[in-house]
Write a structure and sequence with these properties.
The chain is mostly helical. It is built from three helices and no strands.
């Protein structure tokens, strides 16, 4: 697996964890801020899936490329994903 694909998969995991956390927040109250957070989380997931499935895609003529990240950035994203998922598990 190359570094770019690993980075995109990391962003996908982080986006899913963020979406789960924000969806739980939205379930407790329907306020504008949690709704915006859910929409932005969905966009992170869509961008990372699009990057994995269609690496050369350019929707609306704009290339949204998630390039390779350094190891420390990937480590922080994995740690953040683990903490978000742990928080979701505790809330459930």
């Amino acid at each position: 697996m190359d570094r770019t694909r690993l980075t995109r998969m990391t962003y996908l995991l982080f986006g899913i964890a963020l979406l789960a956390s924000n969806a739980l927040s939205l379930g407790s109250s329907v306020a504008p801020l949690p709704l915006v957070a859910v929409v932005l989380s969905v966009l992170v997931v869509v961008a990372s899936v699009a990057g994995l499935v269609y690496p050369e895609a350019a929707p609306f003529g704009v290339s949204v490329d998630i390039g390779p990240q350094p190891t420390w950035a990937l480590t922080l994203l994995w740690l953040g994903s683990a903490l978000l998922l742990a928080g979701v598990a505790l809330q459930l």
